[in-house]
Amino acid sequence: MKTTTRVAVIGGGVVGCSVLYHLTKLGWSDVMLIERSELTSGSTWHAAGGFHTLNGDTNMAALQGYTIKLYKELEEITGMSCGLHHVGGVTLAETQERFDMLKAERAKHRFMGLETEIVSPEEIKKIAPVTNVDGIIGGLYDPLDGHLDPSGTTHAYAKAARMGGATIETHCKVIETNQRPDGTWDVVTNKGTIHAEHVVNAGGLWAREVGAMAGVYFPLHPMEHQYIVTDEVPMIAEIIDAGGEHPHVMDPAGESYLRQEGRGLCIGFYEQPCKPWAVDGTPWDFGHELLPDDFDKIEDSIAFAYKRFPALEAAGVKSVIHGPFTFAPDGNPLVGPVPGMRNYWSACAVMAGFSQGGGVGLMLAQWMVEGECERDTFAMDCARFGDWITPGYTRPKVIENYQKRFSIAYPNEELPAARPFRTTPMYDIFDGMGAVWGAQYGMEVPNYFAEGDEPRYETPSFRRSNAFEATAREVKAVRENVGINEVHNFGKYLVKGTGARAWLDRIMAGRVPQPGRLSLTPMLSPKGRLIGDFTISCLSEDEFQLTASYGSQAYHMRWFLQNLDAGIHLESISDTRNGFQIAGPKAREVLQACTRSDISDMRFMDVRRLTVGMADCIVQRVSYTGDLGYEIYCDLPSQRALWDALWSAGQPHGMKPFGMRAMMSLRLDKFFGSWLREFSPDYTAAETGLDRFISFNKPVDFIGRAAAEAERDAGPARQLCAFEVAADDADVVAYEPIWLDGAVVGFCTSGGYSHHAEKSIALGFVPTEKAKEGLEAEIEILGKMYKARLITQPLFDADGARMRG
């Protein structure tokens, strides 16, 4: 057995083998996979082997498309068969809401190059004759859907990796992982110790146990999952004898997926009375076993399936496959460098291994070899969960995700499991004021405030919801008087030290402000892609506060720590420094009433230390609402006293609380972008307009400078623009295609309704040469085309007089 390697991949399922292959594909040949038993000895061997592209996250869908197209390449490289059956598949819609979701997904696929299509019940009956289409409105057909041989595919990955120089050691159980002072790892096994520069946890069912060896908690949990293979079905036999093959059918109403298996059928269920498995840990001796049959928990699902697929009822059961699969709280994989660790990587919780395994392997290999991925991977980045997450939170969220595997995914839906968990000192006050809650990064956040007999629940919808009137009320309060909301939805960081300014100059592309001032700046990757959108507040020459997206804390802290200079004090203060934003034409009067300091000379982008009420605060004149506004920060124990002062002073001025729904409407008035919508690693500063904040004249080789300068000189091929949309009851959410002269030329990044201007607004990318005032285009929303006109004049305070005055 080798005793040294550049990368030790722990786990020999389809994901571990994919990672190993992609590392060799990108040029790292000194790589090794360690498997406690044989390859596939976990969830892989008993997987149903289906694959599909449908995913609510666009980048995940694209990676699933990559995975599916990769299988033919693997067969060509290795000469081995993956047992591919590209039979196509149709997802059924039994309600208008489900049909809306499928039409929205079809629209996304247009600019992704995926050839899906909306089909009628009559077409479904022709495509998938085993289906009873009674009550079906329509469906989404994907020709890429299919299934394969799980074992053959995994071994093809393994052979391709070996051909690239990789080593695979089976029957080699990892016992310990110990990090050396230089950041490398000793991987202790029953066959001896392997010294590795990098460790990849692809442990699958054992990922929790492997992580614990390094002191890392991975938020995932195995769930029991059951599917049934039938004896011969006459209708299927006829199709086969005629030289055909029946396609896949996904029936979300019945929580089932169905495909041909031999001359019979295979059907699996995501049943409501589901069961978590191995709650206190996966046994090391588990492997090629199955769980006992449990027909009781799928009894209702089977009854529904008999109605949807009548041929099943007469078919005998040939075999029952009941085994565990791992899920993360949101159902997406956990991939990437583990925050707070050196040279430790995650490739686990890949529930749909044969749809996602190739994309996971590619992204992780790019991350390791090239330093960053070719696309935004936040949806599967293990940094999307912070160190606040616990097994007690993970388990109910995983159960919820399993139960909603085939549920409609609404853009405004707030899932209730494991909530409330994390709250601020304002929770009970806001709850008493009618807050309708959302959650971000585990923290409760008011979405809006219900009044009177308005329900305390926002109806999930692809169209304008019952939050519409409440949001309009809050927007009106901000624009006409003054609104208040909490700033706990900002990630906050403290940077101190004599070298703090120099470090910020290197890690941020923009100007680092002087004491008493703040600046806005993008943070770039080495390839010039956006990895942060920050406000820098200079509290003194050697002390700075940074603010950015609350949900990206672990992501940003990981990058900071990877690039930290010696002697710099860096600290996340996201949950220890909180406060409020006040915004609107009366905001200055409210703040002045709460402090003895004169703020009349406080300019836009100024930051000061002030006593507000009884609380010592950091106050900065800036607002994401685009209005006259202030962000007021204090330590957590002072927050209630700060609230009392601001709320009391605000009442004579008509102060109202406002939530995130109003905030997202208000920012549209100024065309302000939002992190992971307009600004993400998929885009560059020049494409999004953030290049106006890059300080190209500072004498510093900041990260991403060369790439940003090259794009500045060449010009971006696409440009982020704003559109006024002639929508009716549904607004842009994200990734709707933008049409020009009958062709898709761009896509939307986000949108919504401007309650101030009473217009539907969309933000999105079009080719730079087309990005001109008055461009007439069309935007496809829920399968319907709407006229859209490109606008460049902000809908509110176009000259900035109120915001800056």
UniProtKB/TrEMBL annotation:
GCVT N-terminal domain: residues covered: 426-698
Domain FAD dependent oxidoreductase: 6-367
Keyword line: Oxidoreductase
Domain Aminomethyltransferase C-terminal: 718-797
Lineage of source species: Bacteria, Pseudomonadati, Pseudomonadota, Alphaproteobacteria, Rhodobacterales
Provenance organism: Leisingera daeponensis
Protein name, entry field: FAD-dependent oxidoreductase
Pfam families cross-referenced by the UniProt entry: DAO, FAO_M, GCV_T, GCV_T_C
Keyword set includes Oxidoreductase: yes
UniProt KW Transit peptide keyword: no
Domain FAD dependent oxidoreductase central: 370-423
Family recorded in the similarity comment: Belongs to the GcvT family.
InterPro entries: FAD-dep_OxRdtase, FAD/NAD-bd_sf, FAO_M, GcvT/YgfZ/DmdA, GcvT/YgfZ_C, GcvT_C, GCVT_N, TrmE/GcvT-like
